Amino acid sequence: MPEGTLILRGRVAAVLGDNIDTDIIYPGRYLNITDRALTAGHLFELAYPEIRAHLQPGEIIVAGANFGCGSSREQAAAALKFAGAGAVVAGSFARIFYRNAINLGLPAVVAPEAAGLCRAGDEIEIDLASGSVRNLTRGSTVAAAALDPRAIELIEAGGLIPFLKRKYAA
Amino acid sequence: MGMTLAEKILARAAGRAAVKPDEIVVAEVDLAMSHENADLVRKSFAEIGVARVWDPSKIVIIFDHRIPAESEKTAATHKAVREFVAAQGIANFYDVGRGGICHQVLAERGHVKPGMVVVGTDSHTTTHGAFGAFATGIGATEMAGVWVEGRLWFKVPATIRIEVGGEFQPWISAKDLILYIIGKLGAAGADYRAVEFDGPAVRGMSRASRMVLTNLSMEMGAKVAFTPVDEIGPDADAVYERVLRIDLGRDIGEPQVACPHAVDNVKPLSAVGELEVHQCVLGSCTNGRLEDLQIAAGVVAGRTVHPRTRLIVIPASQAVYLDAMRAGYLETLMTAGAIINPPGCGPCVGVHQGILAAGEVCVSSTNRNFIGRMGSKDSSVYLASPAVVAATAIAGRLAHPQAVVEEALHA
User: Fold this and answer.
1) Coil, strand, or helix at residue B243?
2) Cβ B123–A70 below 8 Å, yes or no?
3) Among residues A121, A119, A111, which one has the least CA distance to residue A141?
4) DSSP-derived pairing of the beta strands B159-165 and B194-198
5) Taking residues B356-374, what's their average pLDDT?
6) Is the predicted pLDDT of residue B286 greater than 70, yes or no?
7) Assigned domain for A149 exists
8) B243 and B260 share one domain
């Protein structure tokens, strides 16, 4: 998925439940890894190692409410991004995870009914700007929150670092 | 229309007369705190390519997650941060042996003032609402942006007000109160919200106990949480999304326990059932302060930690360690069979001294019990108050402090 795209299409890699915490996404024992690309190897390591094993570039993680609750560790969002996830669609997000994802250029999409609509393997299409998740496999659509213009700016830039880099390049 | 405390602070920091929930504002940051993950921040900052941080006097860096360094890898990140701190002229740096847990050190060294906007690359930054600050956790790259610009966008949170009255029952503490609240509201119950605690019971609490409330509010998703301070408060006609009233006498009759593997899986102690326990941990940014060590020392005094169980005590800071030593609490705890670990996060985040093996059960005064949080994914962590942790260490099974104290009297 090229960075900056506002219509995303991809296969659902997994559908997870509510309150997927950051220790599940990225165990604390690896917090001293500060090279973002290296975080990918530990994605979901303790609870769902099979997701990491099978995740293909551009695939989408779908989950229930409060995804990313717990620690502020940015490695949780980084591991998803560098393992190849194209987006995370969840019923709701814990706030720090949400900001981390957007700041790293990983689309995080709020769609309360998506977890009920999708099964692993489905092909879905997300419109970040207008806010919708279409399940192409099942021919259904659920509403999603349109991304805030500020978040769209960051997604289009590829994240906060390239955004600020451009702003301060003089 | 009046403003809540969160609205009032954000309005001031954004240079606005008033703000209301769901508005996006850009606020000046008064204090930016990081721990070891300053190494991540430093890397993002270098990638942005700006030479100097916006204001070194507003940055505080405190090592706490892995001190002293437990591995060569951590030692290298510590070293890189020390070099960055020196190069940028960041004077407020608390290295190994100079500080302790970031939230405790930030508080006890007086860095936080009422009305401040504080951001920290640690989710439990909400703690500092006990000092009247709008204090919240952010990620490392976002912090790099703060180091560049000195400001950050926030969505103005709606506020939940929680008024607490009545008297604490014997052996019941702030930890039991906040676990009870998290159990009622759920892990997402305060997502994106500010929480204002008030009422006679809260006003009667020590500052250390109030910090337990603001610290653990994060575990129900709160963006910020406050307990009352004299200098600044909500307007009398502030508008709240929701008001909860709790009466300690009526609602919280016994210690509360958060069972695996979620902080909102809260039960009264008697409902947990028989539980053999291998490790007890007393410490963390939630419950590693002097009053916590004092109450634990009172429970274990003259008794011995059960042969099945080990008791790990981690004073929250160098200052707490010294005070607890001078007060004799550490001697009492050690005589009972506790091991005292250096001030820091300890095993709470599963990276430093006190890791659990598969099949082991821990009762801990810390703040999270997620799968694998303290070690093996097949271990279990139950969260409870310092008094329950101490009682459990003596009994070797989950125990009510009253039962432990009475049993010894009759022995």
Assistant:
1) strand
2) yes
3) A111
4) parallel
5) 97
6) yes
7) yes
8) no
Number of domains in chain A: 1
> Residue length, chain B?
411
Torsion of the alpha carbons at A117, A119, A121 and A127, rounded to the nearest 10 = 30
Tell me the C-alpha to C-alpha distance, in Å, between residue A161 and each of A26, A93, B25, B58, B167: 22, 22, 21, 21, 51
CB contact under 8 Å between A28 and B351, yes or no, is yes
- Taking the CA of residue A61 as centre, how many other CA atoms within 13 Å lie in the half-sphere pointing to its CB? 33
B124 and B263 in a common domain? no
pLDDT tens-digit map of B297-321? 999 999 999 999 999 999 999 999 9
Domain, as residue range, for A31: 7-168
> What is the average pLDDT across B329-352?
96
Cβ contacts of A158 on chain B, cutoff 8 Å: none
Tell me which chain B residues have a C-beta less than 8 angstroms from the C-beta of A77.
139
Residues of A in contact with B123 (CB under 8 A): 70-72, 96
Its domain, for residue B193, covers 5-247
Residues whose CB falls within 8 Å of the CB of residue B75, separated by 6 or more in sequence, listed in order: B69
Contact B144/A65, CB-based, under 8 Å? no
CA dist B365 → B166, B293, B300, B355 (Å): 24, 11, 15, 15
Distance CA A27, CA A42 (A): 7
Q: What is the mean pLDDT of chain B?
A: 97
Selecting from A23, A104, A164 the residue whose C-beta is nearest the C-beta of B371 gives A23
Are residues B367 and B300 part of one domain? yes
Q: Distance of CA B124 to CAs B60, B135, B215, B223, B225, Å? A: 15, 9, 5, 10, 10
- Which positions in chain B touch A168 (Cβ < 8 Å)? 48-50, 148
Query: Do B233 and B111 fall within a single domain?
Result: yes
A99 part of contact set with chain B, CB < 8 Å: yes
For residue range A78-92, list pLDDT tens digits in order. 999 999 999 999 999
What b/e sequence results for B387-398 when a residue is b if at least 16 CB atoms lie within 10 Å of its CB, and e otherwise? bbbbbbbbbbbb
Element (H, E) at B94: strand B93-94
B277 and B216, same domain (yes or no):
no
- For residue range B201-210, what is the model confidence (pLDDT) as tens digits? 999 999 999 9
* Residue A1 domain-assigned (yes or no): no
